[in-house]
Amino acid sequence: MNSRGFVLMAALFLIVTFAAIGAYLVTISTGQIEAATQDEQATRAYLAARAGIDWGAYQVLRNPTGAFATTTCTTPATQTLTFDGLGGPAGGDLFRASLTCVRSMETERGETVEVFLITSTGCNRAACGASGDSTYVERQLQLVLAK
């Protein structure tokens, strides 16, 4: 009779121990999955910002009479580009690049030089900016061009 009680206690101890280890592993794996997802979203936001910088540079250098170079860079304005999931699942988050541009005229050794400061903010929301949502990601890049 005494040995049966001991086996029951040992079995209960093992069940509780394995349940605790299982709960711990589920918690750790869930945290790892969330971190990997956030990292992937951050990469996509960076790519959106990079695409915005490339687009803005093209507009300034190759399309100087276009709306971006003549309007956005001369007046306080924002140009927004919308992308799909940038490699994510179909119907996934839309990413945006919000571009601002500041143009200034500088004189160097008697020559006038146009200087453009293009700022591109890539994010996974309809409007880039501060968000209290824990899934919001944002990356910002700046480019200075002179011509």
If strands are numbered along the chain, what order do they take across the biggest sheet?
A: 1-2-3-4
| Contiguous runs where pLDDT drops below 50 for at least 5 residues | none
**Alpha carbon gyration radius:** 27 Å
* SSE pattern: HHEEEE
Fill in the keyword field for this structure.
147 residues, alpha+beta, 46% helix
Describe this entry's structure for a reader.
The protein is 46% helix and 29% strand. With 147 residues, it is of the alpha+beta class. It has a four-stranded antiparallel sheet with strand order 1-2-3-4. The N and C termini lie far apart (94 Å). The model has no long low-confidence stretch (mean pLDDT 87).
SSE diagram, text form:
Layout: H1 2-62, H2 67-72, E1 78-83, E2 95-108, E3 111-123, E4 138-146
Antiparallel strand pairs: 1-2, 2-3, 3-4
Summarize the structure.
The chain has 147 residues and is α+β, with helices and mostly antiparallel strands. The protein is built from two helices and four strands.
